Amino acid sequence: MQVITKTSPRSTTWISTSVPEHQIQTEQAQGFNSSYLVNNLVSPVRFYDAVRKIPSKAILIEIAPHGLMQALLKRSVHAESDCVSLMSRKESDNLHYFLSNIGQLFTLGLTLDLKKLYPPIEYPVGAGTPMISPGIKWDHSKEWAVPSWEEFLPDSSISSKTIGEWNILI
């Protein structure tokens, strides 16, 4: 079992449901550490106080084993806000659910560092490293008109010269 020994400073956008407003400047409330987690487990949830602090057009990410608060959050925050849960007990494939919602966060405009989801790559990679190409499948069910490069240039800008067997466009 690992114990959290280091205190990490909380961001200015972190809204706590376990620390009352008059204690927000205390050392316990300013950092994320084991004492903050214990306080979070044993203190009453101040949901109403926390929801009042959420600005409009916010993106709320519920980090929990199940998106239990999604319905309540959607009813409580501004209509322009988005609520995303990262796990769901009802899903048969939580990895797919998690990655789909990470994609949703990206489409909402968040900048994500997806490299942190994977272990660092050490070069040169081993001979037994699986390739990703078998996992890529092309969808050929639709046809799209693809213009040639000539269609992007005005007619006056195209002139050609023949050099040997090569026809060179200038």
UniProtKB/TrEMBL annotation:
It comes from the Eukaryota. InterPro entries: Ac_transferase_dom_sf (IPR001227), Acyl_transferase_dom (IPR014043), Acyl_Trfase/lysoPLipase (IPR016035), PKS_NRPS_Biosynth_Enz (IPR050091). Residues 4-109 form the Malonyl-CoA:ACP transacylase (MAT) domain. Keywords: Fatty acid biosynthesis, Fatty acid metabolism, Lipid biosynthesis, Lipid metabolism, Multifunctional enzyme, NADP, Oxidoreductase, Phosphopantetheine. GO terms for biological process: fatty acid biosynthetic process. GO terms for molecular function: fatty acid synthase activity; oxidoreductase activity. Gene3D superfamilies: 3.30.70.3290, Malonyl-Coenzyme A Acyl Carrier Protein, domain 2 (3.40.366.10). Transmembrane segments: none annotated. This is Fatty acid synthase. The lineage of its organism: Eukaryota, Metazoa, Echinodermata, Eleutherozoa, Echinozoa.
